[in-house]
Amino acid sequence: MGAMTRITTGMIRRNYETNLSSNMGGLEAARKQVETGRRFQYSYEDPTAAAKAAILEKRYARVKDYISNAEDIQNWQNTQEDAAMAVSGYATTIVKNYNISAVNGTNDLESRMAYATAIEQLQESMVTALNSKYGETFVFAGNEGKKPPFTLEDAKDANGDSLGYKELYYRGQRVDDLTADSPLVNEHSYVDLGFGLEITQPAGGGDEVTSSSAFDSALPGAKLVGYGTTEVELEDGTKVTVSNNLVNLAGQLAKELKNPDFELTDEYKAKWTQFEDTANDLRDQVSILGTKTQLLKSTLERLENEKLNIETQFDSTVNIEPAEAIMNYSWANYAYNSALKVGTSIITPSLLDFIRG
Predict the structure, then answer these.
(1) 30 lies in a domain?
(2) Would 161 be classed as within a structural domain?
(3) Residue 357 domain flag
């Protein structure tokens, strides 16, 4: 027979104290679950869940940034759309009330002067709308948002003599001098809204954002109301250069109406046709803005849903249902109290314990 191991009271006490300490730890952990609503307090308690929670927290912070960006850009976009619709409304008023049929040969100078004054006032109103601001930033100013982008200045010929109307300048340059290659009409302002931002390095150097991977919030004002000039051939075969800009055309039409010897010439008709075409282009731009607004709306909805999904995943990973936490605490408390009762029954002091103590 093997040697028998003698189990002393001290051994029983030490084993009991170890188990009781474990029960106390479980009771404290259960108490913290009830108090904090979390399954664990420190990452070492559940490394897998803690790692998953850290990933979810990063995703959540990133989505919140996307939502903040989208909400800000949506307000910016609304300001752009409101201003563009206002300009379009002024142009529509000119088209409806002061068109060619309204200025036919039966109109006297006084009537034409009234029309011209009204058109010039609408011209001023267009510029005011084009200089709209969101907060402290001009929404049609491209990358120079702190300065009013548009000014109306007296048009002058090559000799510096007044031409009798006001023309539009965009960020210090004549709108009629701008071309499709001009940097002022090709600016972009990309915002990361969670489309998978992609940046490339073109051969010419520098960084370039892939347009489909971000939202472009820029709308250079000159592009909105037209820029540059077009050469138009009249019925008699002569060619004239006509502005592509809505504001400039309004000023030129008003100037013609003030002429005491006004005639409904082919050149006037050409300018009027160009004004109508540019007004139609502006309405197309307003429609594009509306489409971008819908894109922002759907993007916000998607981001809000993603945020909710992350919150749900985080909650199931980190948090605990109150009922479950209370049940865990009740069981831990029951186990601890039971251990205390067992301890009083199995551990009794003896003379030997006192001598060893």
Answers:
(1) no
(2) yes
(3) no
Residue 116 lies in a domain: yes
Write the single-letter amino acid at 237.
Answer: G
The predicted-structure confidence for 320-343, as pLDDT tens digits, reads as follows 656 665 666 566 665 666 666 666
CATH number of the domain encompassing residue 137: 1.20.1330.10
pLDDT tens figures, 137-196? 999 998 888 999 999 999 999 899 999 999 999 999 999 999 999 999 999 999 999 999
Which pTM was predicted? 0.78
Q: Which residues contact 8 (CB under 8 A, 6 or more apart)?
A: none
Domain boundaries, position 209: 57-311
Into how many domains does the chain fold?
1
pLDDT surpasses 70 at 278 = yes
d(CA 86, CA 82): 6
